[in-house]
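Appendix B, Record 12. Input sequence as logged:
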Amino acid sequence: MWADPEAEPQVFQLLQTSLFANVSSAEVSGAAFLGDVPIFALDPANWSINFHWPWARQATAEGDAEKIKSHYKLLLRNMVRYVHEMAQQAQMDYPLVVQIRAGCVLHPNRTSWGFMDVGEGGRDLTAFKMGWQRWEPLQPSQLAQLVSKSLSSKKAITGFLEHLLFISCQSFILTLCRYGRTDLDRQEPPVATVFARTPKPDQLQLVCHVTGFYPRPISVAWLRDGQEVPPGPELNTSAILPNASLTQERERETAG
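Logged structural output:
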């Protein structure tokens, strides 16, 4: 999983949720991930950063990441103030829930692209368009138009985001991969367990539970008389789910 020419694209993303109960309050929580690997979490009580790995803390102490870390509380306060201002202009009712997803994708050839999406109340609201340095509404509402126009007019913010999502984010991925190579580049073999269920008296259901594997990509197949069972209504495959041990698990069922 380490970023080298043979690796798959690396995705770093920050997920932030803010609850505005009234005009004078804000509860902000967040978490950052490199792929499926948690990097740090934001404590909503005091906005402190809790790192999941010692190497994640080391990586954040370098370059642009260190500068951003030293000013992130100011950025959060400005975000809170801006949301309250927009809520007042749009005459919105509290409580409000604002979600932000920001980050970048780094490909093996070192090309990258950044993204930042904002949602309100569980619905997509606006997105930052890299290269154009502007925000575009993601819904045909007055609020989406107002916020997109307001954010696009703030040239200092759009310039900062362009640098953050295109340059700083790419550099941070490479630094994380360098410091965390032992954990990120490891391989854990899967452990498969097969058992039977009887959902109906006349039906036998076989379940294959595969767990403990890393990295994430895996293929699970059933064989019948030495041949792979093709996709169909009798097959049911679960999504790949993360474990607390930083491994993955998947389940596949077949009805007989």
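Residues 233 and 255 are 9 Å apart (CA to CA).
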